[in-house]
């Protein structure tokens, strides 16, 4: 089994997230390091940083993962939007680094009618610049697989591989796969055979050594729909078996497995219980 957890709110201060996570039974948490609806945020204070680290330890949260703001689009052809995205992303890396968070998950970006190849190249160039400017904060930047809604890239494993290939410092980049996203993008995981085939494909194209974080979400929409709608574990169109395969996959026993199911913290506890009930003793 992986290290099970969920995306936790930072309402009332970032240091409260580990306490909230423990209350609902998390061993891992994912957080935004600032309001994800704003481009800029006040710098983190020493007190906040220390309180967060202390609460991580005191509440026995094994690992925290950061997720960037949804405003950021590193593939944007709009120069002003791109510049804001780049600056904001650098700030996100620094914030994660200060908090001692090893991974920053982000949706690669959207091409906004400029074409996929344009976006893939621009995202890779962005990452090279970000990495060069954040050498003292060696946070690993994880490209998340997407459903491919709108003009988002990242719905093909090849997109992720191509971006990684263009990044100079390979040790600073990796991948996060989201079960709902890959399913909506057309990768089946509902049967043992389909699951193994998809994981083998991921390994062949991106490399399992690059996979650092897994998002566990069922899907409201069907296979290949290219629509990103999460559902509770076992209640969606992926179904319970796929999650059983993942939580018992020995290859992923050290990976943070993060829930982003509907209703957030109100339902995370139930979803975590469902996942734990699938673990073979």
Total helical segments: 9
What string, H for helix and E for strand, traces the elements in order?
Answer: EHEHEHEEHEEHEHHEEEHEH
> What characteristic shape results from the CA principal axes?
globular
Counting DSSP E segments of at least 2 residues, the number of strands comes to 12
Radius of gyration, CA atoms, in whole angstroms: 18 Å
Distance between the termini: 10 Å
Label the CATH architecture.
Alpha-Beta Barrel
> Biggest sheet, in brief?
8 strands, parallel, barrel
Q: Given the helix and strand composition, which structural class is it?
A: alpha/beta
CATH top level? Alpha Beta
Strand content bin: 15-25%
- In total, how many domains does the architecture comprise? 1
Note poorly predicted spans: none
**Overall pLDDT:** 97
The CATH topology assignment is TIM Barrel
Assigned CATH superfamily: Divalent-metal-dependent TIM barrel enzymes
Helix content: 25-40%
Oligomer: single chain
């Amino acid at each position: 089994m992986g290290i099970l957890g969920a995306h936790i709110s930072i309402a009332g201060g970032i240091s409260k997230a580990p306490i909230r996570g423990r209350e609902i039974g998390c061993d891992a948490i994912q957080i935004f390091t600032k309001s994800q609806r704003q481009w800029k945020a006040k710098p983190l204070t020493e007190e906040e940083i220390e309180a967060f680290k202390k609460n991580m330890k005191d509440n026995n949260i094994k690992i925290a993962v950061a997720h960037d703001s949804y405003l950021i689009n590193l593939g944007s052809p709009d120069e002003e939007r791109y510049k804001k995205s780049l600056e904001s992303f650098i700030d996100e890396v620094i914030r994660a680094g200060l908090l001692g968070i090893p991974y920053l998950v982000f949706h690669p970006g959207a091409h906004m009618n400029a074409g996929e190849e344009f976006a893939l190249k621009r995202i890779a160039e962005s990452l090279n610049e970000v990495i060069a400017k954040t050498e003292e904060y060696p946070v690993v930047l994880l490209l998340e697989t997407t459903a491919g809604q709108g003009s988002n890239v990242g719905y093909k494993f090849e997109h992720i591989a191509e971006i990684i290939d263009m990044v100079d410092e390979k040790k600073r980049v990796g991948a996060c796969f989201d079960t709902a996203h890959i399913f909506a993008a057309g990768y089946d995981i509902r049967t043992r055979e389909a699951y193994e085939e998809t994981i083998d494909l991921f390994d062949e194209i991106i490399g399992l050594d690059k996979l650092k974080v897994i998002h566990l979400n069922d899907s409201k929409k069907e296979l290949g729909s290219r629509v990103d709608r999460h559902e509770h574990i076992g209640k969606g169109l992926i179904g319970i078996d796929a999650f059983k395969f993942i939580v018992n996959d020995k290859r992923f026993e050290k990976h943070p497995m993060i829930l982003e199911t509907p209703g957030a913290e109100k339902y995370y506890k139930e979803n975590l219980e469902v996942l734990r009930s699938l673990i073979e003793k």
